[in-house]
Structures
1.
Amino acid sequence: MAETGSDLPVKRPRDDEQEINGSISMETESNYISSVIPGWFSEISPMWPGEAHSLKVEKILFEGKSDFQNVLVFQSSTYGKVLVLDGVIQLTERDECAYQEMITHLPLCSIPNPKKVLVIGGGDGGVLREVARHSSVEQIDICEIDKMVVDVSKQFFPEVAVGYEDPRVKLHIGDGVAFLKAVPAGTYDAIIVDSSDPIALCLFHSGPAQELFEKPFFDTVSKALRPGGVVSTQAESIWLHMHIIEDIVANCRQIFKGSVNYAWTTVPTYPRHILLIFLLLLSVVGVIGFMLCSTEGPSVDFKHPVNPIDADKNPSKSREPLKFYNSEIHTAAFCLPTFAKKVIDSK
Amino acid sequence: MAETGSDLPVKRPRDDEQEINGSISMETESNYISSVIPGWFSEISPMWPGEAHSLKVEKILFEGKSDFQNVLVFQSSTYGKVLVLDGVIQLTERDECAYQEMITHLPLCSIPNPKKVLVIGGGDGGVLREVARHSSVEQIDICEIDKMVVDVSKQFFPEVAVGYEDPRVKLHIGDGVAFLKAVPAGTYDAIIVDSSDPIALCLFHSGPAQELFEKPFFDTVSKALRPGGVVSTQAESIWLHMHIIEDIVANCRQIFKGSVNYAWTTVPTYPRHILLIFLLLLSVVGVIGFMLCSTEGPSVDFKHPVNPIDADKNPSKSREPLKFYNSEIHTAAFCLPTFAKKVIDSK
């Protein structure tokens, strides 16, 4: 299963120099429609009926089909380069920092001296880049199902894929659920589920989408964590589907006997989405949520980070300073609007 | 200038029962394009090149042209009824609570016993509804330039326009800047600039859009406030134009000698925008910002509210409880991402 690094060239752009003037449509097996209407890329899904978000396409840089999904990279006029998987925007150069920094530092700054970290998904490398800021970390495993995502990110998003350059990183290409099941119990201090594709796709093809947020998956994650270990995973937007969040929170409370918390932040172009259809919704409103949970053991108070990371200090001088995360925004992320607080506190 | 209430019937919908099947375009004098493409309403502006947000139109309920702007109300498939002024979404039934509650309670919960409050703009009545929750308030003046907005809101958005039913409210139809200039110095405890239209339009026709956030306007506001009085005004999204916010903050610091703060929150469909072209941008990302400033006098610490409002207690039993605002979210709104904090703290 393990495979370390990759230098294979990716498929070349279909037409590297030509501006998009015509109309290109793609209809994927996932039953939603993505289209580049004349000069524009639109996300329109039957799952978020009545709403669409469009970015102007300047140039298509790459189009390919992996064993798992359609992969598209285009140059937008205002958000820099954009990565699209099966028609869903995953990442834009302009705003990827918010998502990557928050999903990583919310868990890692909440425990003292994290040493072993696992990233499930996250093939673009952005979460690796953030994990690598923590000098206490000795081992960073990543399990990504789709090698094309890794290769495309290295070619077109070097400031994101820079995460792979850290010598502590070991890349495993394969199914995240299988990887987790094979891990000895209590291995990791922290697991970050950046499920842009591998697990989501795996589950999408094998069963109901909700599985990713149901007890069996959380149970597998829980067993791979040490006592008092932490997990961070995407968890929907409070603006759209509180009933889904309600279920996720209830499931987490049954599995994670340490603490269970919901946090949120804003991401203008929704740089990352789980590919599960119902979760595409989280993209619509520019707000993304995270579940932060810990296993039974040393107590973890996520709202009050014990392991601050200074915005201007980096273990690697080659990396940019933090753009989004700081200790104040960490704590603020757990303050919820009244309508969401009522539901989550009641679980 | 003063006019209290209004019972005039508004212009009837063009075709109250007919579904939208065709394509309708409007081009306004404000130089941006709004269009209802087949079944969809889109905001596309040359000022946010390369990005568009669309809501599916189920039915157009009202179309009219006031002395100031085009007014459109449509039924959307997922956000309830939507109010559009000159092509810009101002308010949706689904998410208006976040904006209305935050722009109102951030200032009013930061001072003890506010008694006299002025709302500039806010013709829909939502801010009035929120101000009226404060039992200490004795006088609520509102100056709105466009009577059609008031009438349309009363007809189509009764849960928002309910604000007008409070006996403390006095409606003045007229230009907000002129109104402010005529106010005796030191009149108000709080001024809320909900400039969806009146001042914005006024300034748009008389000079550069930026005037609304420049010193002469802030100076007029400052003089109308008592010592230690507070103002709350929209102030752009940190995701798009930090340089504009930078200028606004610098201007505020010169005028408001008490304290000057920037706060932010999320609003999926951007229920309210200033009509100034450059500020349309704030709508794009589902994030909206506010300037919270106080005049010289008793010190105001906006980050630690001294006048909490209980989510479940309302002076009027006819009103819904608060949906978004609470004391935690109040304080959290002032925690900024690192990139924004650096800029704002440097001013």
Note: The CA atoms of residues 118 and 141 of chain B lie 5 Å apart.
2.
Amino acid sequence: MSLSIPSPADFHVHLRQGALSTLVTPHVRAGGFRLAYVMPNLKPPVTTTDQALAYKSELEKIDPEIEYLMTLYLCPELTPDEIRKAKAAGIVGVKSYPRGVTTNSEGGIESYEVYYPVFEAMQEVDMVLNLHGEVPSDPSTNTCVLNAEPKFLTHLIKLHRDFPKLRIVLEHATTRSAVDAVKALGPTVACTITAHHLALTVDDWAGQAWNFCKPVAKYPDDREALREVIKQGHPKFFLGSDSAPHPPETKSTCTPTHACAAGVYTSPILLPLVAHLLESFGALDKLENFVSGFGRAFYGRPITKETESRVVLKKVSGKKVADRWALGQESVVPFWAGKELDWEIVH
Amino acid sequence: MSLSIPSPADFHVHLRQGALSTLVTPHVRAGGFRLAYVMPNLKPPVTTTDQALAYKSELEKIDPEIEYLMTLYLCPELTPDEIRKAKAAGIVGVKSYPRGVTTNSEGGIESYEVYYPVFEAMQEVDMVLNLHGEVPSDPSTNTCVLNAEPKFLTHLIKLHRDFPKLRIVLEHATTRSAVDAVKALGPTVACTITAHHLALTVDDWAGQAWNFCKPVAKYPDDREALREVIKQGHPKFFLGSDSAPHPPETKSTCTPTHACAAGVYTSPILLPLVAHLLESFGALDKLENFVSGFGRAFYGRPITKETESRVVLKKVSGKKVADRWALGQESVVPFWAGKELDWEIVH
């Protein structure tokens, strides 16, 4: 049994910088993908058109066969003029991180109102707003990593109301509330879902940092909601892996004063993993739209003669996921290391 | 400023066996306590009177100045006759672990009905039933570590209804639901609260295995409920530390296929830690009853001439918690290693 998928597109991926980038960027293609929607949370964050173009050219040097869609990091320095410049330069989106909730988000936003002139310009030139949909934890309001996403949804709803034509993507949804909210909003609002959130619940990251990421995986019923909406073939929901490499020692080891890094790395196995998971809950027939059609449609990135490249998967019986990928001093450990997948890419 | 506490009693502690026991048992006294209610989840578990007495005598060899109250591990081999024998030998309680939810609980219970003859005998001779109040995770019923305790409460309520005179302790409560349920039940039902659950929420163990224990710390509002009931000076709620030592490498490090050990170790700093925490939420005036009076009253263990031993705490400004305690090859890392406490024991 085999499946041929046209030009799979990962609408949320972290390709990092420096030596780590050299290791992980080729994993986009190795994992079966031809398009990477690239996150801007570098050190320093990508906040200008020039930075984004320079970053894109670095990535193209590493692997020129991938279509990189670039993003800017929402921050007070970002102006409506810069938005217009970015749009003209082919930059696709602006990513918003609430302050302090994930890797390199220390410069993230605290309130959206101050960004309304920027959003106005984005709406005008049709750039996409990518939302990390969590509010910061606050014990005084009973806010913690478990309800940070549901509590963010009022912001999403308000942004959509105030900018109905602005295309907004709620990134890496993890809760039934988020799925329901996105379904209820207009056609300019979509949602990415990661591979790992289709597999994990809170039990899987309790004491197991390799499965720990932000947003954290939630209740079984939340996972079920993500699976259901894919099974339904709902066109607003498509893959964004949020594949996030970290040096293995920052994942494996914590001290009493230093926690493990948040992030799950799926790039090198992404398409087989997604096929495996979708098959496990009876949604294999939705694979093509989930990993290519729906996201490309929302972003207005149809497959062209130039970007057409079919990826063939074949059914296998239990192919083991490698324990580690390495290049020079750098290495990364993938999600499901040592476990088995029932699909592999035909080369 | 100083406080004098009469014979503090820890109504839930893991003293382990072998070399680790030799290291940690003296920490009961070092942490300011004079009574230890000892958990039976050894390898193999303590399921007979003879085992419990042998274990007690090992502990007394290590530190004879502690009053050890012994427990049996609820399992199919336990008979009403053994209960009567245990009672006659001075054994105080029987601990029930749901199967597979925490350290060495693989032999735990799946259903309570089969134990009714045992509970009948316990009620008759007045032994205490100690409940690890979590149901096993089951994605098909949306059960996970976050709601395993609320979902257990129906079992608690039924057991109390069926055995109204049986003294039952819901151990290490972590949720508002559990606090409310215990409050609503009759005077034979009480509840222990750990020190660390007064400090932690889910955010603290996300990616930080040193704060990971079972039951996991929950929402800020759940922590608030634990704090509130102590502030109220409610006599059904008293300290059981659930202090659980593990080899440091099993806490600090996980591989993709092997999670970190669940357990937080508080014994060597317990009384100063509890004083520090109670003071932080305005409940220092409840310290004596929380760590001595209420638990002793429920268990019928008043302080006698023989067991009277006042422990004096003094207020200090920021005493650092040691990074590690060691003896020979064994070592343990305490909760809050490297952080500061505002109270210390006067020796």
Note: The first strand of chain B starts at residue 2 and ends at 6.
3.
Amino acid sequence: MAPSAIPTQDVDLTAANIQVKEATQPTKPSSNGTTPAPLDASKLIYNLTKDPRPVPGEEVANASDQTICTDHMLTATWSASEGWGAPEIKPYGPLSLMPTASVLHYATECFEGLKAYRGYDGKLRVFRPDCNCARMHMSAGRISLPLFEPAELEKLIIALLGVDGPRWLPKNEPGRYLYIRPTLIGTQSQLGVQAPREALLYIIVTYMPRLDSPPGGMRLHTSPEDMVRAWVGGFGYAKVGANYGPSLAATSEARTRGYHQILWLYGKDGECTEAGASNFFVVWKRRDGKTELITAPLDDKLILDGVTRRSILELARERLSDELEVTERKYTIDEVIEADAEGRLVESFAAGTAYFVCPVSAIHHRGKDINIPMGPEGTPNVITSKIKTWVGDIMYGNVDHPWGVVIPERE
Amino acid sequence: MAPSAIPTQDVDLTAANIQVKEATQPTKPSSNGTTPAPLDASKLIYNLTKDPRPVPGEEVANASDQTICTDHMLTATWSASEGWGAPEIKPYGPLSLMPTASVLHYATECFEGLKAYRGYDGKLRVFRPDCNCARMHMSAGRISLPLFEPAELEKLIIALLGVDGPRWLPKNEPGRYLYIRPTLIGTQSQLGVQAPREALLYIIVTYMPRLDSPPGGMRLHTSPEDMVRAWVGGFGYAKVGANYGPSLAATSEARTRGYHQILWLYGKDGECTEAGASNFFVVWKRRDGKTELITAPLDDKLILDGVTRRSILELARERLSDELEVTERKYTIDEVIEADAEGRLVESFAAGTAYFVCPVSAIHHRGKDINIPMGPEGTPNVITSKIKTWVGDIMYGNVDHPWGVVIPERE
């Protein structure tokens, strides 16, 4: 068959092209001819609680095996025919789902995680929420959930924080934070294996105890030789539930052995990818004598494009270029072991929203222990400390920076 | 380091060993020293509806975009400290879940699908429910959900069908069926990425319109070159939600192009694995002149160990050994294309609980159309027909066979 005789569609069915098609089609035309409504933050309805709950202290929050949420949540329903309904801020409470709901069977779910920080200047900030909202849009497309304009999601997050921020993050307690979890789930009551035609977006704000690095640093165990977290052609780059549940068995087992997280290796050479659900960084001296900050690349879509990861790379390139080179490339556990054996390992850390910038003190790999230099008395080492301070200063308003977005609060 | 100095734990952290550990530990010892209760069908509580709903006709069921369920569902809660609560049969209705529930974020969910058949002898049967219950036990372990004795789950399925079978599958309408969906979800209200310490098992029974093969046979489109359904070291063999949501984008796209399902290929050679969510079979003449029924193997854990697949292989080996060889091995799309070019393609079908045994008439692969012989007027071809008849005869009680388990009905 001559190439010209190949129908265009044949060369088109690729993941990349499906994604482009999704991304450029924020509201799919409905079968009934009407245009479904886009997500619209200007339609937001406030239905505030008359019965606000007491804000727990850290001890209470630490002792609970349930996540404590603030007084309100934001919800917006979607259907294929009508599009997005008006978003609503309402009292926090349970969701009612039919037992046949798509999300409970087919993992049609994606989420984001970001924090709101009470600054040392008394202001409330979120860190680069545009990045999270753009990523949630991408994740939604990958898992066949409805799309939306990322900027509208950002407005909704800010509106919800404006309501619950003042009471749950008091101005006189700078340095505290709340964790925000935008979530999108397929709600259609339909067991057919198909993209759901009904969905629910919700945003909850949770009160987290101050989660600091484990004393003495994070200890990692490399992943089981016969277990893979994500794979080329899969969905490791998307924040979808399907990346998390299947990883829990290995993590539980690592914890019973005294490790905090799994360092997920990929491929027969054991490329270092993610540490638990965080991005993973190593600082080492190369054999040419140059110091290097290295982390796995995004190009094969194995790992999450972390907002903290991206910010660290940008700041390090801007501020540390005199002392080190910043590299995104594949590197293997054997390279880390060699660097350790040759005394070239400088430091290592995991980075993500939940654990922020967390020094790694040890990696266990098939009978070998790699010990990684820490600062004095279990503190983060020099480079890790610098990076943690720089990012933290933006989050808590110690410096003025466009990444720290100030939230207008309803008093 | 001498081999003897390697601590035992180092060689132990493998997926295979985690699975063995899970499987041999049906009730994990609780941290408070008590032994959590096992799942126990003898504790079943009946709380029957006083308001049974009308049983819809096929037209109503076909027209609805919601799955229609029977009058009752069965639920059993689990917590890490208490174990399994008493199972309860109660009126079908919505579930109440906290927005922080594990299943909504981390895809801590698995399920099964099986059918109840109203036989031509008036009896109600399920087909090899022991296989489904054993598989659900395996899936639960893989996704860090609580374990149970598979035989107890089977008793619960039978009890629920005993209640709703008589009215929803009337004795005077042989040949009809209901679809049963046992589901297990992580319900703990906890955003920490960890195995849930609370879960809910539920069983629902759905009224499905008679789902027959698409007229003219099923048309498959091979998967996007840059998209992979499951991978070695992953969880393609488990019936967990995480295998389904990520596959919907490619399936939707194939449907808009006029195909019914994706034929998922694996690896650089394009091994044929599954067709949609069904197992995939080809009958061809080998170059040595022998006829062969071929399907992908289970050993690399890429595909689901389908109950229909297994039954077909067993029956074909028992009854067709004079006319063909039954083979489970890796085979590629190029082998199928070659067989087509050389006129050696005999027939092909997809097999699973939902679509039963469904003839495949066409496969589209990167600009090439493979047309597969069907029977006259779009009916299944000879081998496909034989197999379909044999399995169907067991399901509907036309023959007496240990795979057809009769359900005692409450009249």
Note: Chain B has two domains: 13-206, 218-380.
